[in-house]
Amino acid sequence: MTSPMFEKIALVGIGLIGSSLARVIRREGLARHIAISTRSENTLARASELGLGSSYTMDAKEAVRDADLVIVSVPVGSSGEVAEEIAPALKQGAILTDVGSTKASVIAQMQPHVPAGVHFIPGHPLAGTEKSGPDAGFAELFENRWCIFTPLPGTDPAALEKLSEFWRRCGSNIDTMDPQHHDMTLAIVSHLPHIIAYNIVGTADDLESVTKSEVIKYSASGFRDFTRLAASDPTMWRDVCLHNKDAILEMLARFSEDLASLQRAIRWGDGEKLFDLFTRTRAVRRSIIEAGQDIDVPDFGRQAVEHPAKG
Ligand SMILES: NC(=O)C1=CN([C@@H]2O[C@H](COP(=O)(O)OP(=O)(O)OC[C@H]3O[C@@H](n4cnc5c(N)ncnc54)[C@H](O)[C@@H]3O)[C@@H](O)[C@H]2O)C=CC1
Ligand SMILES: O=C(O)C(=O)Cc1ccc(O)cc1
């Protein structure tokens, strides 16, 4: 075996993303030691049962001590408290990164705690499913997916390249952008679709007459796609909404305007307008497919079992 990229990698948070990382790190031999830490005893016990790491602790400081790479994979609202907790134990020269779905807020929460001499490089793998917890992860999750970095001014290019190489070895393609651009882009391509899904499923659930029987009976249609997204982790998505508030509100305003226009076209029987929009949107999907982007969540994700012992 070639020598591992890192002597010790610490994973703080071992849910869908942390456990997928653990699995791919093991498969690719990227670290000699994988230290796993999470704040829930049940989750930690489950990670140990699954054999995801080399050591397990509820003390995040202990996990990150001597680690060359520390990856924080917790809900974005918890990133500040985790950074504060681990800061005194971080090794000089270590790379500290995260996987959070929002970037400006994570930077604002974590950066003040990062000691001089530690390379903090915020990141976000655009890969996931609606599942959560250590059972839900799988080593192939990051394959052919983007991982976006939002490096801070003055980031050491060598540390950025090492982290990029790590993610490439996990199967990802790398891009960098500034945090505001990331948050605006993700608001439309990821956050709004989830919010719309939560909303439509909530609306259907409010309509007593169509729920339970009809919703279940007829959910083989488009509604089913929304229920998948609307099954995503409530803590994670509460945090995303609260921590990308401005960009999400901006995109929701645009969305509502366009929805009102669509509503008007339906009310006034403007078939041409409807046809033009639907033709344009069909072209969007075709161009995504032609660009070679795998837009379906892989099957191995579908098969993962939801684990009750998360938290
Ligand atoms: N689920 C998805 O599809 C994706 C999620 N992300 C981001 O990845 C991060 C983690 O998400 P998942 O792995 O899906 O969540 P998850 O719910 O599966 O796992 C979260 C983990 O964090 C731990 N945790 C929570 N608060 C903690 C704290 N204060 N200290 C230590 N551990 C704590 C939990 O015990 C659990 O192990 C989130 O920031 C999310 O925005 C990024 C890409 C995709
Ligand atoms: O399950 C899906 O379709 C997703 O979109 C997963 C996902 C959720 C959050 C992210 O920040 C990135 C990817």
Topology (elements, then pairings):
Layout: E1 6-12, H1 16-28, E2 31-37, H2 41-49, E3 55-57, H3 60-64, E4 69-72, H4 79-86, E5 95-98, H5 104-110, E6 119-121, E7 123-125, E8 146-149, H6 157-169, E9 173-176, H7 179-206, H8 213-217, H9 222-230, H10 234-243, H11 245-267, H12 271-290, H13 299-303
Parallel strand pairs: 1-2, 1-4, 2-3, 4-5, 5-6, 8-9
Antiparallel strand pairs: 7-8
Bound molecules: 1,4-dihydronicotinamide adenine dinucleotide and 3-(4-hydroxy-phenyl)pyruvic acid.
Which structural traits does this protein have?
alpha/beta, three-stranded mixed β-sheet, six-stranded parallel β-sheet, 311 residues, binds 3-(4-hydroxy-phenyl)pyruvic acid, PDH_C
Strand order of the largest sheet: 3-2-1-4-5-6
Helix residue percentage: 40-55%
Bound compounds, please?
1,4-dihydronicotinamide adenine dinucleotide, 3-(4-hydroxy-phenyl)pyruvic acid
**Whole-number average pLDDT?**
92
**Strand coverage percent:** 5-15%
Contiguous helical run count:
13
Largest sheet: 6 strands, parallel
Radius of gyration: 21 Å
Q: What is the overall silhouette?
A: globular
Number of strands: 9
Q: Distance between the terminal alpha carbons, to the nearest Å?
A: 36 Å
Outline the low-pLDDT stretches.
297-311
